[in-house]
Amino acid sequence: MNSKAKGVLEVLLVVILIAVFGIVAYQGIGGSGGGDTATPAAVTGSSVTGSAVTDSKGSWIRLGLDLQGGVSVTYEAVKENPTAEEMQDTVYKMQKRVEDYSTEASVYQEGENRVTIDIPGVSNSAEILKKLGQAGALQFILYDKLKDKNGNASPSDGDEVTFRESDVELDGSMLQSATAATQREESTGRAENVVQIKFNGKGTKKFADVTGEHVGEQLAIVYDNKLVSAPVLKSEISDGEAIIEGSFDEFSKAEELASTLRIGALPLELRNIHDNVVGATLGSEALESSLLAGVIGLLLIIIFMIVMYRLPGVSASIALLFYVGAMLLVLHALDVTLTLPGIAGILLSIGMAVDANCIIFSRVREELATGKTVSSAIKTGFSKALSAIIDGNVTTLIAAFVLYLRGSGTVKGFAQTLAIGIILSMFTAIFVTRLLMQAFCYLGCDNVKLYGLPRERKTIDFIGNWKKYVLISGAVVVICIGGLIVNGAARGTLLNYSLDFIGGTSTSVSVDEQTEITDELKEDVLAEVKNITGLNGEVSTSDDKGVKKITVRTTALTEDQANEVRTGLADKFGVEQGQVESETISASVSDEMKTDAVVATLIAIVCMLIYIWIRFRNIKTGASAVIALIHDVIVVFTVYVVASSVIQVGSTFIACILTIVGYSINDTIVVFDRIRENRKTASSRTDLAEVINKSITETLSRSINTSVTTFIMIFMLALLGVSSVRQFAIPLIVGVIAGCYSSICVASPLWYLIMGKGKKEKKGVTYSKKKK
């Protein structure tokens, strides 16, 4: 195959993949958001009635509560150090309960003693929260005494049943254990799956009485008023140990029945530590505005890359489209729940995805300037850029990993999408972009003019101006401290903490756009809340994309109180319950979130310090980079201080800080990598300051271009996004600018000072011939 044909095939391959990704993502072919839901097998006599499996088709990419509304609640076990089996059974119990409300509901364990439940798209929040907190009811009742909900006898497995309380022979408190097992059938020797059950002292006696009096009858197992199974009593059982046998054709079905039996007797008491009722008022608007910001930002980045880098910019733009399609497929394949912060993470990663391309293209231009052919320059440029790309992205991944471990809820979603984006961006830059550039070479696009040469730049004396940079950074610190003092005097708190960090209950009602929000109306709302709860609160208002909201914050309310407040506000403003949102966070959870914010940042910084130390074999390099990171954290923190009236410090604060930490270290490593390279080629008489100035100047365009592309995407989010996204995007914008500044004006000059202000290294003393 000749080179032109090879080039055409490679370009076509990438274009076809992009088209396939786009079509699949648009049509939503190939999966469901909800997954399969299985009903436990039921044994009747010696035969199995079967297992009903329902396939629930959800959205192709699972949407979070903030995009479609719903209920989220986190429970904590009252019992200290619950066992893994107890927690697994609790998760299973809750999963079976929430399936009645939504097939897209998810239940998952957090930590060692917490269970979180997310139920999207529901509005009967009060009923759900009340029922979820109740203990499960497991009862053993003679089958003949059961009726279905229509009053008919002989209900089927899975039916909702009715009965008299006096008909209950045993309950879950009498069951000691239930386990799935495999045994040999006596007559045939064939292995069969069974469920072994054991009753406690009280249950043993009662079970003996029931089995002795009703041999040949069916003893039904009812859980939460639903018929699970109705095995036949073959004989009297006096020792409290029995086997439910039949034809469990799969061991998993025996396990499901055993788990259902265990959870009814579970002595695990749960307490509500965080619940959130989310209305979908802004859901569609938030999704549409964020996607619009992404599309516009993507187009602007493509234009910028083509203008700045010519043909390589075209390759990067095609690779970027490949990246977006691949991202959507991976989100679906991993069943990632997409939230507003998650969308922000995707869009941020799009802006950062061109970072590796900027490094590569700058290297290619430098190789072209030495007289190499385009093909050779591409090969060498990719090779030289690889170490900086890997180092920069690994450190950013460290931040995302720590964020995922220490974050919760939507913050984890942001960390997931950011990490996926970083990995995919590395792949597209190193492989897809390279494939396209080689393909263009095969097609005859090997004129140097199509790639451009680096502009000759006069070396800028960054090191000589280090005192000016100290003054600039010092001024930021002074502003930060001054702002904290002013906030403390005016507000009583240093920052505007959200519910995440102070605990309590926040209730918001969406009112008609024509409603005039006056001081008198605010006072009426506060009076309404106090009348219901007896508590004083504080009220705030917002107008986001034409949706007006009145929000009341109080100390933490009980579930009943929170429901009464939601109902009262809905009645007062004549709106439906779905237009009233509330969130309750216990003081213990808010304290944990504040601790996590500090711990996560420290862990990320220490991990990065260790990584840089290992890669550059110089602790002074790592220390300089870390101090520059602290500088950026202070700058972003200053935004929260100065703009405290509009920007709250909450869970996304952790995401914002760690994102900037990861982004900034990426930029710093690229500069340090060039310094390391130039020191190897510099003569022994070259001053260290000269090497650093040259290195920063050579990487200056890359640093600025990368910051511009990231800035474009975040700016579009801040411009078009809803309020919650803007509160995240605005500090990020400042952080991106600070990260670029610190990599150029803080990290490298600081390293120069730590290294001893560029003192020349001592060389061996030699004799040389006297010059004539």
Strand content: 15-25%
The number of helical elements comes to: 21
Distance linking N and C termini: 65 Å
Averaged pLDDT = 80
Q: Order of strands across the biggest sheet?
A: 6-7-5-17-21-18-20-19
Alpha carbon gyration radius: 32 Å
The quaternary state of the protein chains shown equals single chain
Outline type: globular
DSSP strand count:
21
Output the structural class: alpha+beta
Segments where pLDDT lies below 50 for 5+ residues? 29-58, 760-768
Percent helix among the residues? 55-70%
Largest sheet: 8 strands, antiparallel
Describe this structure in words.
By secondary structure, the chain is of the alpha+beta class. It is globular and about 100 Å long. The N and C termini lie far apart (65 Å). 56% of the residues lie in helices and 15% in strands.
Could you write a compact summary of the structure shown?
With 772 residues, the chain is an alpha+beta fold. A hairpin with a 2-residue loop joins strand 2 (43-44) and strand 3 (47-48). The chain is globular, with a radius of gyration of 32 Å.
Relevant terms:
772 residues, alpha+beta, 8-stranded antiparallel beta sheet, 4-stranded antiparallel beta sheet, 21 helices, 21 strands, 56% helix
Write the layout of secondary structure elements.
Blueprint: H1 3-27, E1 35-38, E2 43-44, E3 47-48, E4 53-56, H2 65-68, E5 70-77, H3 84-98, E6 106-110, E7 114-120, H4 125-132, E8 138-142, E9 147-148, E10 161-162, E11 168-171, E12 175-184, E13 191-199, H5 201-213, E14 219-223, E15 226-229, E16 241-248, H6 251-264, E17 270-278, H7 283-309, H8 311-333, H9 340-353, H10 355-369, H11 374-406, H12 410-442, H13 466-491, H14 499-502, E18 504-511, H15 519-533, E19 538-544, E20 547-554, H16 559-573, E21 580-585, H17 587-616, H18 619-642, H19 651-681, H20 688-720, H21 723-754
Antiparallel strand pairs: 1-4, 2-3, 5-7, 5-17, 6-7, 8-11, 8-14, 9-10, 12-13, 13-16, 14-15, 17-21, 18-20, 18-21, 19-20
Helix pairs in contact: 1-8, 1-12, 3-6, 7-8, 7-9, 7-20, 8-12, 9-12, 9-20, 10-11, 10-20, 11-12, 11-17, 11-19, 12-19, 13-18, 15-16, 17-18, 17-19, 18-19, 18-21, 19-20, 19-21, 20-21
